[in-house]
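Technical note accompanying the year-one report. For the benefit of new consortium partners, we illustrate the data format agreed upon in the data management plan: each record pairs a sequence with a structure-token string. No post-processing was applied to the example shown here.
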Amino acid sequence: MTNDSNDLHGSTALVTGATSGIGRAVAKSLAARGAKVILHGRDRARGETLARDTGARFIAADLTDAEDVLRLAAEAGEVDILVNSAGVYDFAPTAATDAAAFDRHIAVNTRAPFLLVGALAPAMAERGHGSIVTIGSSAARLPAPIGAAYGASKAGVEILTRYWATEYGPHGVRVNTVSPGPVRTEGVTAIFGDRTAVLDQVNARGRAGEPGEIAEIVGFLVSPASSYMNGAILYADGGELSTLPG
């Protein structure tokens, strides 16, 4: 490490969901800060293209498969930074969400981070340093008539973050979550189609977020600049939650 508190040279980072959206922005940001980046994704072609562009390494894995998640951790090896960015979302009503859809939300959004932290954080703790950031969602605190499975999976991430901060914090490993509001990613745009203007009407900022804005927050959290932050849930939502009580 250099004296620059935002410099990540000498660090190795695993970023899940790195082939699109927030994950891709995070991967590019960490690489620009000097980290050696390991990219995860399901799309091998996109992953290998991004790896060439950023000088990173790509590992394909299916996060709905617990054994494949553990294989990802094993192939990644020793990492200093873990960013759990991969996620799935389906904004359907409860009655229209079957068991398979619910299980998929939990598997990717909650169980995969749980397994990766369990596989990678102990070695970080042994070395006495490390940083873990999971991408949550304002949906964990902002109930809506649709999307209960997604909200539940992201609420799980928030409580896990607090447990992990308590478990690993004394050993030099910091664990935090960034919970965005609507962000203009490919996936969100595909869901909303020609109704994307609604994304600009849900918060006090008057617009949806951009993946790069979330990536900057992640970059801060994994760097020495945030050395006293542990167990924090940062809502990057443009003020979406500002009107809630408490």
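Partners are asked to follow this layout when depositing records. The mean pLDDT is 91.
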